[in-house]
Amino acid sequence: MRRPIRPWLRVPRRRRPAAARPKGGILLPVLIGIGLAVAVIVLIDAALRPTVTELAKAKVKNAVTSIINDAVNETLSSEAISYGDLVTLGKDTAGQVTVLAANTAQLNALRTEILGRILEQVEHLDSQELGIPLGSLTGFATASDLGPVLPVRVLTAATPTAAFEHVFTSSGINQTLHQVMLNVQVECTLLIPGGAVDTVVEAQVCAAETLLVGQVPDTYLELPGGL
Fold this sequence. Notes:
It comes from Flavonifractor plautii (Fusobacterium plautii). By secondary structure, this protein is of the alpha+beta class. The protein has helices spanning about 25-80, 85, 105-125, 125-130; strands spanning about 85-90, 95-100, 130-135, 150, 155, 160-170, 175-190, 195-215, 220. It has four helices and nine strands; from the N terminus they run ααββααβββββββ.
């Protein structure tokens, strides 16, 4: 005799094992994301680096120029040096200037003292003082001082060079302004975000001047030692 079939009794089906995820399924999107992030950073750096470089050079130029002016003024003041210490005027019986003689020993000593002060101050420039606010990269004047500051540091500074120059400028009828100018050049390597850049700062400062009355003499002498 057959047993009655019970339709509610069913043999449970075996579940098929889930397909194994391919190896690298997570790693590949991560690598793509990292690659895109790096590409974006590179593009932003390429677009902003010229602006950052120019701003950094301008900041350093202003700071170094100020240092040069201060070094000249402080040295002249501390040593109490005047025009007569640097240049001797020879006059005839009528009081007309006939000879200009430069005191090169005094000029060389003055130049050495000034260059020493400049180098010391440049090497101690504060990176915060030279930093560039991110707001300055927007091009808007109102935002130039806003945002985090990108650090700029003087990595190295070569020994500055300087040379004296005598400049004669007409300053009215029968009058000539004689200036003893100091031309200073400072080479610096700056460390900015993204790498290092080289820049040269040049400045001209008046060390002494006087007003010559009458015809400028054709005779100009330099005492031994040279400028």
